[in-house]
Amino acid sequence: MLSSKKKYIVNGNSGIKAQIQFADQKQEFNKRPTKLGRRSLSRSISQSSTDSYSSAASYTDSSDDETSPRDKQQKNSKGSSDFCVKNIKQAEFGRREIEIAEQEMPALMALRKRAQGEKPLAGAKIVGCTHITAQTAVLMETLGALGAQCRWAACNIYSTLNEVAAALAESGFPVFAWKGESEDDFWWCIDRCVNVEGWQPNMILDDGGDLTHWIYKKYPNMFKKIKGIVEESVTGVHRLYQLSKAGKLCVPAMNVNDSVTKQKFDNLYCCRESILDGLKRTTDMMFGGKQVVVCGYGEVGKGCCAALKAMGSIVYVTEIDPICALQACMDGFRLVKLNEVIRQVDIVITCTGNKNVVTREHLDRMKNSCIVCNMGHSNTEIDVASLRTPELTWERVRSQVDHVIWPDGKRIVLLAEGRLLNLSCSTVPTFVLSITATTQALALIELYNAPEGRYKQDVYLLPKKMDEYVASLHLPTFDAHLTELTDEQAKYLGLNKNGPFKPNYYRY
Predict the structure, then answer these.
(1) Could you tell me the superkingdom of the organism this chain comes from (predicted)?
(2) Half-sphere exposure of 158 toward its Cβ, with a 13 Å CA cutoff?
(3) Which of 154, 220, 480, 494 makes an SS bond possible with 475, Cβ 3.0 to 4.6 Å?
(4) pTM of the shown model
């Protein structure tokens, strides 16, 4: 049982800064972006990997109310209108989904019970930008139970569950998100979370770096007062390292993306299950005998390849890292360059977190009916902007599925317009998200309660002890029983009996 705030504090070591170069940010943050038609298929073409993955016009099914949530006057049952969701009347359905998710998120529920009387986040004002699903709703309500005030926007224009957003708004959370936002809507929602009279955020929880970058660029004085940033995506972490390298990061940040619990569970096991779900729901295809190329063999790529191989697909892998490339070869996959197989494969999946992995040249050479999708965080991996030309015809097949047709009649099947496939087109396993959400919650507690001087203006990896604690909270679900070291064994290994059991440099 945790009995005081101090027991949430875990010492951490500084993470190794990634030496990654990015193009200069082109987005103008001191102006409101040009408004796009909310049901148009037109796009603004972004200029760099640091701003393009949030740009897209919205699409909603014809059965939906076409009135923009921004034009509606809505109030919850308590009379509050400090939110903007699709339809507040859907709150009851969203509440049921959240209750189901709670059953598969044991660690967050345990945190609520253990910290009932302590409120380790009392006084914390957290502004968040993540996917808004039933699972993140459980996280948000846990943060509220721990004493935090929260304001939230969506990090992806397609992944928001409208009924869940409505349930959160009904519960009193200022939420600004709906499925099918335009680019203008996306930035407007973020600004509504941040720009509130009399409310100064002191913590940021981000997924992709858009929120952090918005505050940094548009509200620099507010940014200087932030006590800590928690970032869970590879794209957002790269941005933070970029700021740190330039000497412009004036607050400590926690890199959750490279924590063991994120990499080895969310990235691997979540994608291993959700890649098949996303492809099945959108295309109804059979995987047996299909030729698939997976670009990238990190944890996400490993999960995708394992799932597709198990279904009988012939899987090729592309990689830039010789270590990951060797792993792919040892796991039985053929390592190729994309150009070598692009004419013959049935499915192309990107998992790199990079930009321009699939270019217009690749798209031109694909076979008829080739399926193209992305499992990385951002929408920069596939050069979708290059397909917005007069000679190509776009044909909407169903929600999140487009045919792009060439003059000779060849067509490719583009899923989610190059955005994250699983969260845009299907769902993800709740239990795995419980692991990541618990990691995020503990990282926020750690940064918020850390004594002055423990964390400097830099990017830190999650302390190993915290990773192990998150894992231990999930073991009772499996009726799992850990073996305990004897005093003699602990002395022999030079370990504390209670952990951490691996050094920070250990690679799982």
Answers:
(1) Eukaryota
(2) 27
(3) 480
(4) 0.77
